[in-house]
Amino acid sequence: MTIEPQITLDTMSEADLEPVLELLRGRDPDTVARKAGVSRTRLLRIRDDLLALIEQERARVSDSPPEKIGRNAPCPCGSGKKYKHCCLNRHGPRHGSAGQAKPSATSAAQPAKNAEQTQLIAQIEKTFDRLRAGRYGEAIDRAATLLERYPDEDRLHDILSTAKLHAGQFDQALDICKKRMAVAESEKSFFIEHGRYRDSEIDRPALSYFYPPLTWLQKTWIALKAKAYNDQCAIEEDAGIVEWVSALKTADDASRFPNDRTRGLDLRRKALAEPIQRLKTAGPDVVPHLRPLAWKYSWSGLFVPEILSVYPTPMATRTLIDISMFGFSYASGASLHYLEKRGAAVITAIREAFSMDRKFDPIKTGIVSVLGNIRTPEAYDLLLGLLAHESPHVVNWAGDALGKFETIDALPAMEAASQKIGGEKMIDRAIRRLKDLASAAIPPE
Question: For a FRET experiment, which of 34, 245, 373, 433 has its CA 20 to 30 Å from that of 445?
């Protein structure tokens, strides 16, 4: 059995950090592990190692006593003078006996800070309950009030932007997402370098909860699509379609259906079998009416990919691609499933998806994986081209998908791509598989 070395800040890569931050945000471990191309066990180990490192660093910064310096030792300030002739008097008189340090202000304030953090979490939960109940105005007001004291708390920014989307304030929601994405990029760089966020060093009422950049990239994409779907909704509404879409929306009625993930979905599917079937047979004009449901993380939105799958139109295909980029655990996965079932017919749409909205390419890895299961020359050529992509995420997934073709001729391009991005698990695993195939193809002497 191979024992993996413990993760350290020196050995931790951005590829290690990104899925852990998603996991800490509450994402499903299996979904995150699959998306990152690692096993669930390794993902949880990386998380535990990272949390241990963070706690060690916080303890070192907050609670560790200052190192005892001899009077005649060189001054730690680097002046070249002896300590007694330089900074000794600036540090003030010593308290207590040798080896004992006066408790730091940070250490003394930690219990109060922890208590406030607990209260903050409770306030966030209450605010989220308002959002979930559809009380968007209340959620907006409460989140905005809390953000005055906790300006970098991403859970509050998330609630605020989502509530504004549901309230039809699309531009304001989009502005929040873009600003927080810029902050997330900055905080990620600081975290990788220092092993902690900036607010762990300064006097803040509570440590903020930061989302990783990819999360805000997804939320920016959702906000963009919500605005576009609203603007492009059918002008001439079909009364029959409107009726069946309204019936589908009853899936969101918590008083009628349970919130249990598996049982709740089955009960809704049985109860709403007629409107679902009607929407599947009404014709492609239903697509613009369904798109406004697609961006909402709701029960009714879970059925949208299934209904779209029966319509082989460009708008339906494009909407499935859009949903696959939302990062929704069920709807995004279902969209990829239905895209894959379209086979070679979807390749043109995927190529077009990579020719537009380029800054969102890092969240297009799902459609890259679809190409790996469509074994055609067109899919192979598109994946080869994606090995030159500027996003390490895209390159990693393209390499993994390309490996499924079992074409040894792809090895040089895959090895060059892996070297360019510093080596990643998925593409390197695919390279090893192809090398094994190449070795097996060599006849014995």
Answer: 433
